[in-house]
User: Which sequence fits this backbone?
């Protein structure tokens, strides 16, 4: 694997516990979870519902706060959302009253980028996700896959160094999903970022990642970490290879046949 | 479809068809509407001929021509519309910020909502006696009552609009770096526009209804007053002219708002 051992991780989840009070009882969404992600790494997080994967992402995005522990990005504690951390939501979250172009420009205008540069940058990322024909279309004219590509362009446009993706392809049909996985890797290869990608799809987790983090529920914790030593670009042949299927079997087993109580530390190997 | 071939990256991901072919069924619908109107007028005419105590259409047209000829109808319309628009504009202008305030700040909601809910259960017309005692018999009490009617229907809509903004959209704006002020202007306001426009339509409807009733009670001019005056002299054609004018004007105002709604909220996904 070509991941250099870096002294300072890009993202560091440090002994994070998150407890939601739930009708008098405490629900432990994350129980003392630690995970380090290095620069430009593509990490997927997979696990059963209630394992805290979305909670962990929300904490990193600054949309939620840990009960205990710290979330550190670029050596600084996360306090609130910031444009250096792009977030892509499962429900696309496009502004329905804005065209594709205006959606992509939203973050740039918020940052006070000059109009001409706004246009240019938006144009570049719209082309990168292949939506140039639909730049002036409203979201209601787009299919689910196109909406998510627009959301990816919008997140990329503000030039974040980190992309946090919360089951972005979860609502799409299986065929569209495979296409978008390939396109996402294409986009990521052209514009490298540190990615944390949450999914409930084992195939997707293995196909995209440098590292697959498998989580367990009750309490939410990291159950296992599987390094994916396949090279990029990932091809269809790779997806059908015995190596891929061996990795998928490992991840599958870790997701669907969890031993109670098991837990690992999430530092890169 | 040239756009389709352009997405070479995936053929099976098709954009949604923008709108269904409607022009044919639209024309048919209009024809049916026209038939219904002509038929209704025919029935009215037949009823008036067959001994019901109704003025026949020609008598009403004649009366309308007379009222237009001496300028009465025009000045009545101007008087009524002036009242309705002053009250309606004041009402919505206040309702939108108050509704936003209630939706955005729980404290404001707690302070304002009991009063809004209370006055909503009191029909605006029931306020007229009080308004007349406090404000005299001029235009002020009428405009005030209309203002109240428009305000109460619109404030709830604006409030609902803010409360119903999809939290994911607010989060999406936050992670793109937007702070509260920008989120409010760029996300909350556009997202609640559909609600506000529905509130404005309801508000205009109740403002119009309230106006005519207010003029029936105390006025020297206006469509409601004209009908009240005609009632004393058993002048049925004039009452009909008044009713038809009120209906047509109400319909026109509603259509204008509907058009605005279509223009401003065309981005919505219809299910």
Assistant:
């Amino acid at each position: 694997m070509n991941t250099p051992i870096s002294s300072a991780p890009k993202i560091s989840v440090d002994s994070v516990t998150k407890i939601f009070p739930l009708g008098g009882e405490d629900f432990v969404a994350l129980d003392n979870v630690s995970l380090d992600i290095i620069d430009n790494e593509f990490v997927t997080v997979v696990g059963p519902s209630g394992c805290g994967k979305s909670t962990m992402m929300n904490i990193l995005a600054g949309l939620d706060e840990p009960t205990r522990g710290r979330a550190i990005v670029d050596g600084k504690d996360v306090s609130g959302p910031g444009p250096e951390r792009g977030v892509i939501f499962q429900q696309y979250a496009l502004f329905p009253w804005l065209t594709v172009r205006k959606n992509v420009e939203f973050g740039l205008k918020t940052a006070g980028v000059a109009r001409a540069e706004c246009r240019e940058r938006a144009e570049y990322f719209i082309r990168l996700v292949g939506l140039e024909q639909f730049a002036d279309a409203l979201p209601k004219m787009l299919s689910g896959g196109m909406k998510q590509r627009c959301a990816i362009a919008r997140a990329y446009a503000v030039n974040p160094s980190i992309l946090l993706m919360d089951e972005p392809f979860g609502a799409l049909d299986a065929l569209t999903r495979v296409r978008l996985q390939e396109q996402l890797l294409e986009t990521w290869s052209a514009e490298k970022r540190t990615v944390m990608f949450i999914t409930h799809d084992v195939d997707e987790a293995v196909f995209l990642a440098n590292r697959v983090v498998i989580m367990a529920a009750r309490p939410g914790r990291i159950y296992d970490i599987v390094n994916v030593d396949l090279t990029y670009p990932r091809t269809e042949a790779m997806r059908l290879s015995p190596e891929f299927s061996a990795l998928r079997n490992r991840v599958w087993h870790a997701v669907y046949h969890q031993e109670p109580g098991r837990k690992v530390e999430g530092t890169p190997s | 479809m040239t756009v389709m071939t352009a997405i070479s990256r995936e053929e099976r991901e098709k954009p949604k068809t923008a709108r269904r072919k409607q022009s044919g069924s639209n024309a048919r619908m209009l024809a049916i509407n026209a038939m219904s109107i002509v038929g209704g007028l025919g029935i009215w005419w037949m009823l008036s001929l067959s001994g019901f105590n109704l003025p026949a259409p020609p008598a009403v047209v004649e009366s309308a021509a007379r009222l237009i000829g001496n300028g009465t109808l025009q000045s009545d319309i101007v008087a009524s519309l002036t009242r309705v628009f002053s009250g309606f504009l004041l009402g919505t202008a206040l309702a939108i910020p108050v509704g936003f305030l209630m939706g955005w700040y729980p404290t404001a909601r707690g302070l304002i909502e009991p009063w809004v809910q209370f006055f909503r259960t009191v029909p605006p017309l029931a306020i007229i006696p009080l308004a007349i005692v406090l404000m005299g018999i001029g235009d002020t009490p009428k405009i005030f009552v209309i203002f109240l009617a428009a305000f109460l229907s619109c404030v709830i809509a604006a409030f609902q609009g803010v409360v119903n903004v999809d939290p994911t959209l607010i989060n999406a704006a936050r992670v793109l770096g937007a702070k509260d002020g920008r989120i409010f202007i760029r996300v909350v306001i556009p997202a609640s526009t559909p609600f506000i426009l529905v509130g404005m339509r309801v508000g205009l409807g109740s403002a119009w209804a309230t106006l005519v009733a207010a003029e029936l009670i105390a006025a020297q001019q206006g469509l409601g007053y004209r009908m009240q005056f005609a009632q004393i002299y058993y002048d049925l054609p004039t009452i009909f002219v008044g009713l038809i004018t009120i209906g047509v004007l109400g319909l026109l105002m509603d259509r204008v708002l509907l058009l605005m709604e279509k223009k401003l909220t065309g981005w919505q996904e219809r299910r």
About this structure: The interface with chain B takes residues 61-63, 80-83, 85-87, 89, 91, 93-98, 106-107, 110-111, 130, 133-134, 137-143, 145-146, 154, 158, 175-176, 179, 183 of chain A (CB under 8 Å). Chain A is about 35% helix and 25% strand. Helices of chain A lie at 53-61, 100-110, 115-128, 144-157, 174-190, 202-208, 236-239, 242-256. The first strand of chain A starts at residue 11 and ends at 22.
